[in-house]
Write a structure and sequence with these properties.
Layout (H helix, E strand, L loop, with lengths): L3 H17 L3 H13 L3 H20 L9 E9 L11 H13 L28 E7 L4 E8 L18 H6 L1
Parallel strand pairs: 1-2
Antiparallel strand pairs: 1-3
Helix pairs in contact: 1-4, 2-3
């Protein structure tokens, strides 16, 4: 039996957690890069990243002001049963996101627009999340939570290629 409140709180807490903690493998890789780096300016930059990461974790404050577009990957077991049926899964996910982004102990910057092609008004709680579903055998739910930086979503270029054109050459050019 999956409790709606636990599901919602899990998303809320996960978003708070990832806003200020880097994964251990990232910290280890950066530490190794620092030890191996020969260039003094590059070594200083890596040291600053590690220092900022530590301050972020200790202060429980985001490392970067862009706390991202929330992307949720759900693997939902076909036999999952909920304690209540008054909210859809989308509503539960977005409630968890809204709580994370308005948590008074660590308010995260909301940057999602209600209508990006129209009035461009901020939702003020970073909803809706991008939700990917996979229905799987079993009676459990696996949730992967990420907050992809919003600025990277704006870096795009459109081109129309002929069938004989090379994508590789276009990218290299």
């Amino acid at each position: 039996m999956i409790k709606q409140s636990v599901f919602i709180d899990s998303i809320h807490q996960a978003l708070q957690f990832i806003s200020y903690y880097h994964p251990k493998d990232f910290i280890s890789a950066m530490s190794k890069a620092y030890e191996m780096e020969q260039s003094a300016p590059a070594k200083d930059s890596i040291a600053q990243i590690l220092s900022n990461s530590k301050m972020s974790a200790l202060g429980k404050r985001p490392l970067c002001q862009d706390t991202g577009i929330v992307v949720i990957f759900l693997k939902i077991g076909m036999e999952v049963k909920w304690d209540k049926y008054d909210l859809s899964i989308d509503q539960m996910v977005n409630l968890g996101v809204a709580r994370a982004y308005s948590d008074p102990s660590n308010t995260l910057r909301a940057s999602i627009l209600n209508d990006p092609a129209g009035t461009r008004t901020n939702t003020k709680n970073n909803t809706p999340a991008v939700i990917h579903y996979d229905v799987v055998p079993g009676d459990q739910i696996d949730i992967t939570v990420s907050a992809k930086g919003g600025g990277s979503e704006n870096k795009a270029k459109f081109v129309m290629l002929n069938p004989s054109d090379s994508i590789v050459n276009w990218i290299l050019n």
